[in-house]
Amino acid sequence: MNGLVTRLKYINGDFVKALKGKNIAVTGTLKNYTRQQIIETINKIGAHYKTSVTGQTNYLIVGDIAWRTTKHQAAEKKGIQIISEKDFEELREAVIIK
User: What predicted TM-score, i.e. pTM, was given to this entire model?
Assistant: First the structure.
């Protein structure tokens, strides 16, 4: 597992707590999901999909070419954790395994 999953496990003690009830926004084009699929996956793991980045956003999933989007810049300014699609996949798998 990568460092993000390990840090979340350490901080939260449980992978499910790492995502359950969290607000997740998405920006850019993802390789393995359509927008509808990522929304369904986020909701299925107990998190909430959000269309914009606000102070309530916990994570921003960033697609390959989205490193300069308005959402990305807003997340950086607000100190929101920015994760790649690969990071999200590892988190999702950890939640499902748990």
Answer: 0.78
| pLDDT value of residue 77 | 94
DSSP state string for 6-40:
HHHHHHHSSHHHHHTT-EEEEES--SS--HHHHHH
What are all long-range contacts of 37-42, with beta carbons under 8 Å and residues at least 24 apart? 41/92
CA-to-CA separations, 72 to 7, 25, 84, 85, in angstroms, rounded: 22, 10, 11, 14
State how far the Cα of 25 lies from the Cα of 72, in Å rounded to an integer. Answer: 10
The structure tokens 């840090």 sit at 7
- Average pLDDT in the 1-15 region? 49
